[in-house]
Amino acid sequence: MSNQLTDTKHALDRAGIRLKAGEYERAVAAASLVYNRSEATSMAIVALDLGQHRSTDGAGYESNGDMVVLIVSNGAVKTAYLRRSTQPMTKEWVRGRVAKYGGTMKVKWARGTEQAQKRNQSTFKKRRGGRRY
Q1: Position 131 in a domain
Q2: How many domains are contained in the chain?
Q3: Using CA atoms, how far apart are residues 118 and 129, in angstroms rounded to an integer?
Q4: pTM > 0.90: yes or no
């Protein structure tokens, strides 16, 4: 696999709407490390923990959350969006959200997103016995 992920126009467009200056570059750098260590060709990578909730409502492309997720397929970043750490990051979500890009889809967490992953896992431990979405 290549050392650096490539961008697509769609990913750059969405990052321009959803992310602040420098965040996309940091997310791609973190995602590149994860992608290069994986056998999978396609994955959802939680690349940044923003530490606080952000929303792009009103931009025409609604996205909100405290994490930056990149969808990567065959070395190209297909899209970038925000996702709440309280939303499921499961195989079912991956199949439903990103399967259109083909390949073996997995969810990976980049270094520096440990707190977001902990919040995510904590939320779903509490819900396993109770109501589902």
Answers
A1: no
A2: 1
A3: 19
A4: no
